[in-house]
Structures are given as structure tokens and as C-alpha cells.
Amino acid sequence: TNVILLGPPGAGKGTQARRLVEAEGLVQLSTGDMLRAAVKAGSPAGLAAKAVMEAGDLVSDEIVVAIVRERLASGDLAKGVIFDGFPRTVGQAQALDVILAEQGLTLTAAIAMDVDDAAMVARISGRSTCAGCGEGYHDTAKRPETAGICDTCGGTEFTRRADDNAETVAERLKAYHAETAPLIAYYADKGLVRPVDAMAAIDDVTGAMIAALNPTN
Ligand code: AP5
Ligand code: ZN
């Protein structure tokens, strides 16, 4: 199973990818996480990406495709990959087709996460992440059971992303509509699109995704 999660910022791609890793044994490939790690490490890709990400624009296809190619070449992806936040342009989708063909892999589905833009701003501005284990939280939608303590690892430090302010979120949504939304038609042409209502509760979205990946008929 190799699946693409297609959806705007805040749709819940990262949240659902983590759950599919547990439920289906897939490996998450998040270009956003990989780029943030590159920025933190100060690598050449990170130095080039930092200002672009802070502005809410898309990092160049060249940089992103290079990091994906490297990750896919590193093996350990036997049970399959969840592409979270990649591809994001038609150029990246075409490059992914080439890379998968080179490795003898095929795509199972592109899950199109349907959401309403206005709700995305609220989701993103309430978001925080456990510094210890990476579990995601939300100020109203998903709080730790005990305030200030991570449910998963017991950690007490939570971080917020530099690009999670209202101004940058508006830019990220613009980039999504201009560059990424056309991928729904790109994958529909290949018969791969599975729409999922991503406005539903987190557990229900997970259930709908698992059903989309494991058709019973
Ligand atoms: P990236 O890290 O990919 O961010 P994004 O696409 O903007 O998506 P987010 O991580 O903000 O949201 P998400 O859909 O994962 O939602 P989450 O699960 O966290 O990219 C960041 C930047 O990196 C880009 O702007 C770009 O510059 C660069 N970049 C990355 N990939 C690139 C590429 N391929 N090409 C070029 N540039 C690239 O959920 C959000 C919040 O909502 C959380 O608090 C969560 O708890 C809550 N929530 C989730 N689901 C629900 C639900 N069903 N109901 C209620 N609350 C929910
Ligand atoms: Zn934690």
C-alpha cells in the first residue's frame, strides 16, 4: 500500500498519517517534517527552505524531490508509504511517478481530504506538538487528558510551529489552491482518488481512510 494524503494545511494529514502508521504498519513520509529537520540541522536544503517556509510559500520542486528520492532509496519501506504533504505540485507528482516506477512501486490511492477553509485557520492556530514524542494536540479539539502532560510519553514540553500564525496560514492556503488542488484532477485521471470527509471527528476520519484503503468488495 502506497498512499498519498492530499489536503490543505490543517486538514489533519499529519494526525491521520500517525494513526495509519499504527493501524496499517505503513511508514510516514512527511516532507514538512523532513524540511523542518533540515532547517534545524542547518543543512543546505534547510538554509534554502527556511525563509520560504516562514512566508508560507512552497519550497522548490528540486529540493523537495531530492529529499524524497533520497528517503525512498533508503529502503525499509516494505509495507508501504504514506505520503504526507507530498506531492504538492504537478511537477512533484510527475517526479514521484518516475521515482516509483524506478523502484517498481505503484500507488494504491490518493485520499482527498475534504475540508472547509475557514475551519483550517482555527485548527492550525490551536495546534501544539509534544517535544518529546511528536504527538499532536489542539487547544480545544484534542487536549491531553491531564493538562500539560503528554498522553503518549508523559512529556511536559509542547512546541508551536513558526509558520502557524494567521498571516502565514493564509499564504499556505493560497499556495494549496493554486499549486496543490490541481493534483485531485491529476490523480482522478488515474482512477486513484478516494474522497474522505475530513471535517468529521478525528477517529471517524481514520475509520473512513482505513475503509478507503481496504475495500471489502
Ligand atoms: P507541512 O508540514 O506539510 O504543513 P501543511 O501542509 O501546511 O499541513 P499542516 O502540517 O499544517 O497540517 P496537517 O494537515 O498535517 O494537519 P494536522 O494533522 O497537524 O508543510 C509546511 C511547509 O513546508 C509548507 O508551507 C512548505 O513551505 C513546505 N513544504 C512541505 N512539503 C512541501 C512540498 N512537498 N513542496 C514544497 N514545499 C513543501 O492537524 C492540524 C490541527 O488540527 C492539529 O492541532 C490537530 O490536532 C487538529 N485536527 C486534526 N484533525 C482534526 C479533526 N478531524 N477535527 C478537529 N481537529 C483536528
Ligand atoms: Zn509526547
From TrEMBL:
Enzyme class: transferase
InterPro entries: Adenyl_kin_sub, Adenylat/UMP-CMP_kin, Adenylat_kinase_CS, Adenylate_kinase_lid-dom, P-loop_NTPase
Binding site for AMP: 31, 36, 57-59, 85-88, 92, 161, 172
Recorded metabolic or biological pathway in which this protein acts: Purine metabolism; AMP biosynthesis via salvage pathway; AMP from ADP: step 1/1
Principal localisation: cytoplasm
Keywords on record: ATP-binding, Cytoplasm, Kinase, Metal-binding, Nucleotide biosynthesis, Nucleotide-binding, Transferase, Zinc
GO MF assignments: AMP kinase activity; ATP binding; zinc ion binding
UniProt record, GO biological process: AMP salvage
EC nos: 2.7.4.3
Residue span of region NMP: 30-59
Subcellular location: Cytoplasm
Domain Adenylate kinase active site lid: from-to ranges: 127-163
Positions that bind ATP: 10-15, 127, 200
Reaction equations catalysed: AMP + ATP = 2 ADP
Keyword hit for Transferase: yes
Family: Belongs to the adenylate kinase family.
Quaternary data: Monomer.
NCBIfam families named among the record's database cross-references: adk, PRK00279.1-2, PRK00279.1-3, PRK14527.1, PRK14532.1
Protein name: Adenylate kinase
Gene: adk
